[in-house]
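so i finally got all the pieces together for this one. its two components total, 649 residues if u count the protein bits. some of the lines might not be protein, just check the labels. i wanna see the whole assembly predicted at once instead of chain by chain like last time, that was a mess tbh
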Amino acid sequence: MATERSDDRSTLEAARKRWEPRFERLRSGWSRFTEHRMGVVGLFIFVVYVLWALFPGVFAPHSTQWVAYLGEPPFDARLSAEQIETLPHPPAFGDPFFAPLGTNSDGQGVLTLLIYSAYNAMYIGLAAGLLSTLVGVPLGLISGFYGDTWIDETIQRFVDIMYGLPFLPFLIVLVAIRGMSTTNIIIGIAVTSWLNNCIVIRGETLSLKERSYVESAKVAGASDTRIIFRHIMPNVLPLSFVYLAQDAAGAILAQASLAYLGLADFTSLSWGIMLRNIQNSGYVFQAWWWLIPPGLALMLLAAAFYFIGFSMEDVTNPQQ
Amino acid sequence: MTRISGRYLAKRIVVSYLTLLVIMSLLFVLLRSMPGSFITSMINPQMTREQIERIRETWGLNEPLWRQYVQFMINYQTGDFGRSPTYSTAVSELMLRRLPRTLILFGSTFIVGYIVGPLVGMYLGWWRGSNKDKSIFSSSLLMYSMPSFWIAWLFIWLFNYHLGWLPSSYMFTQFPEFEWTAFTVMRDVLYHLALPLLSVSFIGWVGAMLIMRPSMNNVTEEGYVFLARAKGLSERTVMLKHAARNALIPVATGAIVGLAFIIDGAVVIENVFSWPGMGQLIVNAVLSRDFPVAQAAFFVIAALIVVMRLFTDVVYTYLDPRIKFGEGE
């Protein structure tokens, strides 16, 4: 019994010893990350949005069913004509109802909608960003390393073909073919946005492989795969982190643009759809409390992705 | 000293042409796999079967798909873009009218963006890590994160709705009290251009800056910058003459990304400002299933992008002598 326990402890010890350097690297990376105020701010915004996305009920003052004057369902009355006159209602704090950011023309609380929409934006940003990075970066690395061979040719011709198709109009075609669900919008964004990653990573790889350390690795007998993933990839990783973040932010903004053009799943809640609804109901220049918050929310989330991405670049590539 | 061989260039031109053919084929398939057809807006329930058949016949929809495809490819080789069913004009005429308008709006924002962006990027990259860099960089990222139509609305709200200084839509005054001369046309266009230009440039310049900044920062560690400093050249000369020129290489590639961004921005911004350009045309064509116009619009944009990409590859070899294309042939 006793010997077994000591065995346990020794394997634990060994595991800890093995993992110690990695933890150490993570810890120093974290401390370098926190040196960037921009990254910390980005992370803070990100965490707030994650909390909003996961527990909207905790933060939102009402449920999405809530209607001004009537309160939560089931409703025992209907809105009177004078009450409808006052919608969209500017911010009100208790009198005649509580809606810190006012209401829209349907009487829903703007703050409530804002918080419940975080999930959608988060999902679209992360999924589309990850998808396009996972496709774009490896293809860019391979294409750049085998520059001027048939492998590079094939990948680049494919990129050329996709690149000739303008992003948003092409996205509209894809969404029209596959239907306007959130998943299809994500797939559409990923299909069109991995190209940037591929082109930039290829360009970087093209100039990196001329460096002397790649030459010496080659002379030392390293295989192509080893050179690509061991010697070149660490040097392009910072850039691909930046592009992952950029893709995520771009995806969120693209979804908003699509919603503005009327291509969105209008049964779901999103900031882009909120903005679309303002325009549809003709209150763009009358209801600032309805116009400003969704745009600000979009901006802050996209900015959070950019902030984190660019600070990560500094962490993985410390040059100062 | 040519760094690019004639044979390589010829090969690239042929390949670009083939790329365009593939893009056209892809478009043909994709546009036709969208549900619906432009024919639905022309027929109504009162029509007899024969009438509908006749309309289908006129637009060549009764032919088998492969023959439509062959016809489409042959027509495009000879520069025949067909007629638009919704605009009832020749598509080529429509393109010729719309393309310059988009180029006026987005060409000017492109120029503004690619002058301001690299300059700010150069400055931030050179002084990377300073407080000035941090604050300018993070605020420009905030700008870059704004939805374009939203910031356009805010500008319209301020300059049009609130102050009443600038017009918020169209390219020309709708019912002018002045006569159309070359001067008044130009003045009128500039007047209408101001707000869209401001809205797009407000966001657009950051793209170029984002490429320039890290590139500039990488260059600061190169030997030739060290050498230039050691020679006793002033900081300004080193930055402008020795570092910035080399740091511009990725920006050149980025300009192509910027070109694609033009059309994306055009789609939304032209919609906001009712600017009668290509962006609006292509979206309306796709949404109303006007295949002749949508195909032609995609084709024009694709041709533009393919030609520009070819052009950058040539420029690339001149900017960075280390990269040689077509050497091994």
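Chain A touches chain B through 53 residues (CB under 8 Å).
Residues 224-260 of chain A form the longest helix (37 residues).
anyway lmk what u think
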